[in-house]
Amino acid sequence: MASPLANYVSRLSRHLRGMDWALLLAVFGLVLLGLAAIYSVELSQDAAEFVHVKKQIAALVLGIGVFLFIVPSNYRLLQNYALILYFVCLVLLAGVLLFGETVRGSTGWYVMGPVSFQPVEFMKMALVIGLSTYFARRGKQVFNLRGFIESGIMTLVPVGFVLLQPDFGSASVLMGIWAFFLFYAGIPWRYVISLVMVGIGLFALGWNFFFEDYQRSRILTFLDPSVDPLGQGYNVTQAIIAVGSGRWFGSGLGFGTQSQLKFLPESQTDFIFAVVAEELGFFGVGLLLIAFALVLYRLFRQAGKTTDDFTCYLVLGIAAVFFLQFFVNIGMNLGLFPVTGIGLPFVSYGGSSLVVMVILFAIAQSIATRNHG
What we know:
Elements: H1 4-17, H2 21-42, H3 51-70, H4 78-99, E1 101-103, E2 106-112, E3 115-117, H5 119-137, H6 145-164, H7 168-185, H8 189-210, H9 213-223, H10 232-245, H11 257-260, H12 272-305, H13 309-333, H14 351-372
Antiparallel strand pairs: 1-2, 2-3
Helix pairs in contact: 2-3, 2-12, 3-14, 4-5, 4-6, 5-6, 5-7, 5-13, 5-14, 6-7, 7-13, 10-12, 12-13, 13-14
């Protein structure tokens, strides 16, 4: 009789052969671009010990370990644990307001010695799984007011906790995930208008009661960068300069003036796209955009091959997370959106984000291996 370990290795090998290799190649390329950009930024540090690179690699190793566990597992079992996962992440979101650390004005981090993580990153995953389970169990029913309200409550409760941190960027991503599900489920236009009104109401509520001064400044600066050219407007201006100075092939890794001379703030997280653009030029940006386009194409292709509602919703939810963060982050770097602290998936520095992105990627590969079979 084969041992459990031998059975696992055999099952893992079988599933690895059936993976979506184009999707794997695209994600691998994004991770490499991210590590190269983080390494380049750390070259300019006074004591270049490459702490951020080491932490990012440690998070990647952890993510790969989880990846190897998830790929051969039956992803449909997530439906059984969707409610538990949702409430665990909700408790973590509530707890971080009491026991969390404040970083860059947002109380959204649990810090335990050298280890820290953001519960909102895991909430994104939990919400995708929870909404996928909810809409799949509704079956082929016509979308009605009850579904709109119940799914809205599932979303607005964690959004409320995130706004209390305050973290407007992550709250917007959670709302965007819900919007993706609503449109795919066939939401009537009258609910679209209601959703827009809810968004306006939440923004007004946040502006008056939850937003910090620096967050209001970011929005005002987005509307008119000249309002605070040496403060909040400085970040966006330097990012645009970095993007524009890259030309065709960039200045080379470690030779970007904006990032190496520390003109570009938050260059490893919010503005890592600007680092890639300045140091690798249009060529590097082109590779990055092609990789993201391939990721989204393969996910939508998977969704078209699915045979059940849960799988289809799950793949589309994963695609929604990747797309929303990609779209918002690049918009921030180009001055098209306010700076909201949303990182570029697989590229920006951040252990929590990278681990969650790899987990979502692993779920997509688990689905791909079964579609392949």
